[in-house]
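User: I'm new to structure prediction. If I give you an amino acid sequence, what do you actually give back? Let's try with this one:
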Amino acid sequence: MNTQTKKLSKLTLFAYGCGDFASNLCWTFVGSYLSVFYTDVVGMAPAVASAIMLIAKIWDGVNDPMFGAIAERTNTKWGRFRPYILFGAPILAVLSVLTFTTLGKGSGAVIYAAVTYIGCGMMYTVVNLSYGSLSTVMTSDVDDIARLNSYRMMGTNLSSVLLNAITAPLLMKFSGGEGYTAGAYTKVAVLFAICALPLFYFVYTMCKETIIPPKSSTKVSVGTSIKSVLSNKPLMLVFLIQLLAMTAFFGRMGVVIYYLMYNVQRFDLIAAFMSLPSLCTVIGIFVTMSFTVKIGKKKMARIGYIGSGTSLILIYAVGATVGYTNIPLLLALHCLYGFFCFSFPIPMAMIPDAINYQEDKTGVRSDGTSYATVSLSTKFGSAFGVSGGLLIMGATGYVANAQQTPAALNGINLTVNLIFGILFLCCLIPLQIYPLDEKKNEEILQSLEKKRAENAQ
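Assistant: Good question. You get back a string of structure tokens that encode the predicted 3D arrangement of the chain. For your 457 residues, that looks like this:
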């Protein structure tokens, strides 16, 4: 195996960060607005919209590991993962637009929504899983791996800042000022797709694959790879941590619009409430990046999850006790929540450690399947979070485009803040069990380098 010991340039790190910026121009819009598009524009019942999202994620449970196994066995002049970015990005752009179009209402609209959403999710897997897997094959330097994932999360959150700041005004402008229309959603999706494509190709151009797996890894069966991944204890714990964290994060992202529309009732501040937390996350990642390397991934992740969970619980308490009129306090707590989300890149930086652990233990390096497994936790988390949130809101009395009852308003506040806050705190349980630390990771890396040198002779 060839390894990259030269430090990655700032331009390469910046280019890598642009990848998630591009992905989220397509996917964050889906995550933040698709549920309200389905219920308030297409006219679906919350249970129907929830069912579509769950079915899509059940399919992802099959599709993601399958594609990961295919990608890690790909062998082209462009590399294993880069060609899927090159050829998959334009298809993802088209499907992200089709997801925000509709055939009207009724059963035909439901079927069309399911097909386009599932198709968009599949292409997101192809592009984003390949992009994410690049971090495991661009370098073996521990600090650079951490920086790659930090730049990635900064790209994620900067895109969220931009989208949350401009999406609502754009929807209002394209709708003619009278509610959000189906055509407005389509136009915004087209705009974001056009902006995403050049960024994907920037990643493809600047981010090179330098780590080549042992030839034995490309010859093992798919079943052996999957079995090896599933028996990888550190990787399975990272999966569980991400599942809980992403259920909380993406679940809240998918339903917070209801909280802002019906509880806070300040349409003029929707952009601020949705963009400021993401901006504070970027600040948090930038401020804590060096501490993650010095103090350790587990300790910094623990601080982040405690801070995120506590902030959301406080937001719930404010609404439940004094109401939603204290806008400065609610904005401050949302900013605090965003800052503590600096923990998001940390589990992604744990994936290469778990892959090295697997290779040292079994001799099999399953980059694609390992990354796909953890990536699946993000898909499941976003589906479970949003669909579960919609079901709880429906059960507590939410009715689309209507004056909500006190019970419905409490159900929205409970869902958006208290439940997801508790889920962040639940991340502490698998994090405590996670067995790898910086000292152990260094021992594993030294062992691997010794084995690679022996195999090269």
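You can read the tokens as a compact description of the fold. Here is one thing that stands out. Residues 277 and 332 are 9 Å apart (CA to CA).
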